Amino acid sequence: MDLFFIVPVLALITMFAVIVFAIKSKYDVEAKRDDPNADKSALAADGPAKG
Q: What's the pLDDT tens digit per position in 25-40?
């Protein structure tokens, strides 16, 4: 195998993995945002206050 074949293939595999991870993360965030029983962020206005 030539270097000019391996490098683009590895780059495409890496880009595909990043895209799949981003789509999964987006789905998880939207599912948690829609869940009324999910914990609120400490930075949210209606989140738990730590004083």
A: 999 999 998 998 888 8
Tokens of 37: 């029983």
Q: Are residues 46 and 36 in contact, defined by beta-carbon separation less than 8 angstroms?
A: no
Helix (H) or strand (E) holding 29: helix 3-34
**Residue 30 identity:** E
Q: Is the pTM of this model over 0.85?
A: no
Contact 50, 42 (CB under 8 A): yes
Distance, CA of 50 to CA of 40 (rounded, Å): 13
**Which two tokens mark 29?**
């965030």
